[in-house]
Amino acid sequence: MTEHANDKAGTSAPVTAGGAPAARATILGRIRTALADVPASEQPDDVEVPRDYARSHAGSDHVALFAERVADYRATVTRARAREARKVIAGSLSARGVKSLVVPDGFPADLLPDENGLAVLTDEPPLSVRTLDAAGGVLTTCAVGIAVTGTIVLDAGPGQGRRALTLLPDYHLCIVRSSQIAEDVPEALERLEPTRPLTFISGPSATSDIELDRVEGVHGPRTLDVVIIEEP
Amino acid sequence: MPDNVTWLGTPAFPEAARTALGNNQLRTNLRKATGTIRDKRLAVTGELADWEQLRDAGAALKLRTLRHLDSHLVRLEEAVTKAGGTVHWAADAAEANRIVTELVRATGQTEVVKVKSMATAEIGLNEALAESGISAYETDLAELIVQLGDDRPSHILVPAIHRNRAEIREIFRGAMGEWGRAAPDDLTDEPRDLAEAARLHLREKFLRAKVAVSGANFAAADTGTVGVVESEGNGRMCLTLPETLITVMGIEKVLPSFADLEVFLQLLPRSSTGERMNPYTSMWTGTTEGDGPSDFHLVLLDNGRTATLGDEVGRQALGCIRCSACLNVCPVYERTGGHAYGSVYPGPIGAVLTPQLVGVADKQAASLPFASTLCGACYDACPVKINIPEVLVHLRARAVDEKRGPVPSPETLVMKAAAMTLSSPRRLGWAQRFGAIGGRLVSRGGRIGRLPGPLKRWSDTRDTPVPARESFRAWWQRTRGEGRS
Ligand code: SF4
């Protein structure tokens, strides 16, 4: 991503639909007065940012690190070869006793378990919030994984669906391909498209609001299982 | 006009602190909580060998933001508008409240769900909405505890840090029924049960909510991407399920570029909850067809921030990413708790931010920069290297100036000299040792009476206790320093 040089602010800005235009002018005017000590010729990029921090804190085996760090959040992680993946997924679902499963559009058909005793809900037409709330779980792919922080990022792409699908069901089973795992935060952000709706998930929902004791499971899915599909 | 940042009727810090210090339950709760989080933070920041380099980058990015705030805001406005959002500007709290109230009214709704947000607490939004007949439901567990307990937040990250589990159980049993689904009769004080009660209580509100109000942790000027960092998933609920989303954000929260998040997404969770990453971070850019709110409003709030920006020393306080690390390491905060500060922003950052946002003419706010021992623990902990002791001393001088009027008083000169001394730990250490000796030389009966020369008028009006043989800072380092905690 490049940062382009700007005109001095305000000269070419559009007038927005919302808010009193007076407040906009007032605030921008106050800012310029407040910054009287900043030379007019200075551009934002002239303020130097030292970038000597590491691009990655992952060691040699970042896939193993990802598995370890996700598990640290008390999520269950399974590593599987591509041809075993479908069996592993079916195993997780039955171990969790999931009876009705939300499967977003674009989820790879070859990974879908046989529908034996499992009701599959598709989001076409869109499921109501009540239906989602009552569903036993949701099965998705992801956009990116982050090894160092044990994070999964969803971007509402194929196999992930709109954000509500992974929020209301109490159980989330997420499939991560090893090639999707970035070593650390900087690499992950480079791989993402910022304008898509992004959800970074690090373990199941939790709170530390009661005596700073971590308790899993408040509003998001209380159980998170992750299956890593190893790619050659 | 009340400023909302500070709570009307709160006594100045020394008096409020005395009351708080008498509350043993409060001190026990606080000591336990801040001790836990301090250890967690040190463990995860210690994992990154380049933590200092990340802090330097974070500080520099905030400087880049603040020195060109106007240009970043205009770029942000452009990007958000292009992505289908609407940007509003609010010069003060009243204007922000008016904008939000009108936006909610336009939807025809009388209820909104809220994600924890310092900015909306600062402007007193819930109260303003209530006046217009709109109920605002806090959905963050700690905020819910505060709201149901008819209480005030005492910490910027864990607003109910002053409450223990038994107190929380009583609040839930007493008040949940009035606001919606009641707590079960057999509710225990196990954190897991309390969290479950909150889940059930709030779920029905989420499922029917049509309007949400949030704050924002950042907004990238180049892409128009806005982000909320959270743990529980209540943020995701509010940001995803309703049709209308109104986000109130302080103007200083803008970042030059989306890529800059590579620094802040490492600094914030580790400094804040002491985790490698918080459970959930949501980012959105305008609106997305078929996913989430179809109507997005971003309210850019000044409310004293531009005044803060105008102070070349004080402006660094605007770089704060609200991680709360400085509260958790502060010896004063640990003993008095957040309420004594009488402000939405307690602790060391509150002591520098509050008087700047509301002005040092406010007596209560002006007392806050004195609520510190200048031990420097906050500066060491701050992920964006805000030199809080430097700003504290600078504001003490300003508070004294304000009291004395335009003629520089000896008190002011002393404070200015103190600013010079205190801005360097080495000089401070030297001056404290010297002060301990020098103070003893001029003292009589354990008090310092009249001093000669320019200090005469100052010492005329007060007796100063003789400096302790060991400075507070030296004592603190010896007995309670971070390495020991
Ligand atoms: S001042 Fe620094 S340490 Fe304190 S809350 Fe802000 S960012 Fe965190």
TrEMBL record, chain B:
Gene3D superfamilies: Alpha-helical ferredoxin, NagB/RpiA/CoA transferase-like. It comes from the Bacteria. InterPro entries: 4Fe4S_Fe-S-bd, 4Fe4S_Fe_S_CS, FTHF_cligase-like_sf, Helical_ferredxn, LUD_dom, LutB/LldF, LutB_C, NagB/RpiA_transferase-like. The keyword Electron transport applies. Transmembrane segments: none annotated. Keywords: 4Fe-4S, Electron transport, Iron, Iron-sulfur, Metal-binding, Repeat, Transport. NCBIfam families: LutB/LldF family L-lactate oxidation iron-sulfur protein. This is Iron-sulfur cluster-binding protein.
